[in-house]
Design a protein that fits this description.
Blueprint: H1 2-44
Length: 45
């Protein structure tokens, strides 16, 4: 029983960090794409 509880608490502990990492990565991608698109618009627009 203790092993199952440990696994559950481990999952609940790691889920927020994984979600935070995914959100930060997606935000970084959005920022990079926005900067590149702005640069392209300024160069060719």
């Amino acid at each position: 029983m203790n092993d199952e509880l440990d696994v559950k608490t481990g999952v609940t502990d790691t889920l927020p960090t994984v979600l935070a990492a995914a959100v930060s990565k997606s935000l970084m991608v959005v920022v990079v794409v926005g900067i590149i698109s702005l640069a392209v618009v300024r160069c060719f627009g």
